[in-house]
């Protein structure tokens, strides 16, 4: 079975990975590295066409039980 898991790693000034992630034992893993520039790090922002046009009319946090949010 193949599944995807997103892992973000950081490098030092020499380009070496600072901390390797824990990986499954006895597995073959394919890695594709997408280099994130400083513009992609930080808060995400909505597209300018929809920014500021959304209104929440109800309390979204009480719309489903807290256990369904999968927060840990």
Which structural class fits the helix and strand makeup? little secondary structure
- Our count of helices gives 0
Overall geometric form: extended
Fraction of residues in H or I helices: under 10%
Mean of the pLDDT scores?
81
Q: Residue ranges: pLDDT <50 for 5 or more in a row?
A: none
Please describe the biggest sheet, giving its number of strands, its sense, and whether it closes into a barrel. none
Total beta strands: 0
Our estimate of the beta-strand percent is under 5%
Distance between the termini: 26 Å
Gyration radius (Cα, Å) is 19 Å
Can you give a write-up of this model?
With 72 residues, the protein is low in regular secondary structure. 0% of the residues lie in helices and 0% in strands. The protein has no helix or strand. The protein is extended and about 50 Å long.
Summarize the structure.
With 72 residues, the protein is mostly loops. Helix content is 0%, strand content 0%. It is extended.
List the keywords.
single chain, 72 residues, little secondary structure
Topology:
Elements: no helix or strand
């Amino acid at each position: 079975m193949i599944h995807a898991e997103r892992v973000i790693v950081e490098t030092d000034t020499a380009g070496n990975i600072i901390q390797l992630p824990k990986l499954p034992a006895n597995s073959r893993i394919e890695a594709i590295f997408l280099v994130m520039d400083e513009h992609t790090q930080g808060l995400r922002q909505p597209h300018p066409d929809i920014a500021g046009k959304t209104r929440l009319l109800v309390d979204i946090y009480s719309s489903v039980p807290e256990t369904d949010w999968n927060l840990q």
